[in-house]
Each structure stands twice: as C-alpha cells, then as structure tokens.
C-alpha cells in the first residue's frame, strides 16, 4: 500500500508518492489548481490514487510558528477532508512548517536555477512532507 503526499497551495499542489514498502517518497508532479474557481485537481488525484494503489493520504498542514492554525491551514484541512471523503481514504494532516523553505534551500545548494526551482519547489516540498511522515512511522 502506497501513501500519497500533498503540498497544497492556492495555485498548485505538489504531489509525491511512497514506494510500496513505505520507506521512501518520490516526487510525481505539480498540479495546477485555482481555489477561486473551485478547481482543486481532485479528478487528477483520483487517477493517481488508482494508478499507484494509494491507501492513505498525507496532507501538509501549514501551522503558524506558534502552533496555531491560520486561514491557509484551515484551507488545507478542508482540502484533505474533501479528498478523503471523495476517495474513502484516511487523511493524515502533517505539520509542514518550513518545508517549502527547506526544499528551496536544497535546490539552491544543488545550484538549480531560479526558473527551474519554481517548477519543482512544490513537488519537492511534497516529498519532504511525505518523507517526514514515513520516517515517523518506522
């Protein structure tokens, strides 16, 4: 059973998936979404869930540094709840504080250009969210 990892933003969703043993996370893609138009990429995620035989979803929860949950965190909670209900899968909300900054730092250290970083940052953040969750399970 694989686990899907998501980094949900207002315009994109970074997508990662675990290996079948649940040891490592691999980045899959970045979906374009539009919150204002209620376009959340659920059907494309459904295809991924089916293709990879996903049994669980981990959604990054952007908490404030003091641990409280603001508007963005609430939007991620709602996104995860809708996705879980739609595909009848358990959804785990995973504290993702600083993952996007950490992903960007890794890409900068790897000397990835700014334009290329922009294309992969959300997918990389999804990998970091999912890997953090997978590591906590072992």
TrEMBL record:
InterPro entries in alphabetical order: RNaseH-like_sf, YqgF, YqgF/RNaseH-like_dom, YqgF/RNaseH-like_dom_sf
EC number: 3.1.-.-
Cellular component GO terms held in the UniProt record: cytosol
Coiled coil, from the record: none
GO molecular function: hydrolase activity, acting on ester bonds; nuclease activity
Superkingdom field: Bacteria
Location of the YqgF/RNase H-like domain: 1-103
Top-level enzyme category: hydrolase
Family to which this protein belongs: Belongs to the YqgF HJR family.
Name recorded for this polypeptide: Putative pre-16S rRNA nuclease
Biological classification of the source: Bacteria, Bacillati, Bacillota, Bacilli, Bacillales
